[in-house]
Write a structure and sequence with these properties.
By secondary structure, the chain is of the alpha+beta class. It has 2 domains: 64 residues, Orthogonal Bundle (Arc Repressor Mutant, subunit A); 172 residues, Beta-Lactamase. It has 9 helices and 8 strands. The strands form 2 sheets. Strands 5-4-3-8-7-6 form a 6-stranded antiparallel sheet. Strands 1-2 form a two-stranded antiparallel sheet. The longest helix has 25 residues.
Amino acid sequence: MALLRLITTHNRTGLRLTDLHRMSEIEKPTVHRILQGLLGEGMLRQDVNSKRYFLGAAMYEMGLAAAPRLAVRDVCHPYLRILAEQTGDTVFLIERSKFDGVCMDRAEGSFPIKALVLDVGRRRPLTVGGGSLAILSALSEPEVQRICAINDARSKERFPRYSAEELQRDLIDARTRGYVIKDALEIPGVRTVAVPIRQTDGTPAGAISVTAIAARLDHNRSALVAGYISDAVAQIEAELSGRGTPA
């Protein structure tokens, strides 16, 4: 599962055997043996030229069978398209997967400079990124502290300048404001505005974020974009409530 998660996160570029050995800290012969088994089952494929591993067709087939009774992505997708048209920017749907935030869908607007900070399927610690922070802001304080404690080492390793104190300030700001405004940690000059999607019991079902170059998301336009997202989220929440609780 560790190897599959790593390949899922880097599926756009793929990973080599040496990459997987280094990133997973699993012995190289063990990694090679597992990869060969996954290849044989169609769970992975390997590019003959680069020798990089990618997810295989069997993963897609299993994913179809494992689709939840009510997929938040299916409800949100039309609204992502509308938001992309309204803002001209890139719109993302983020959902929680244990201690990570996973990009489940995205839609691209017409503005020529794209802020494609996430590929669909990519996961990051739930303490990183505007959409993930929006989800965190909608969780109870004990759950937030549990997630932060577990993700602390992972976050420090990748983003050493993003302190626990700054994270707490971001969460307080998000709860006060009702939405997240956050500069991207990975790409300088990129900013995100995000709003959580809540289930009927108040817990987050996910978050929608709009990402653009920072010059396009100053204070005034960020508030405008947050209003667009909030309007879409209100309709999504009503639709989810009418369909039943997501599986």
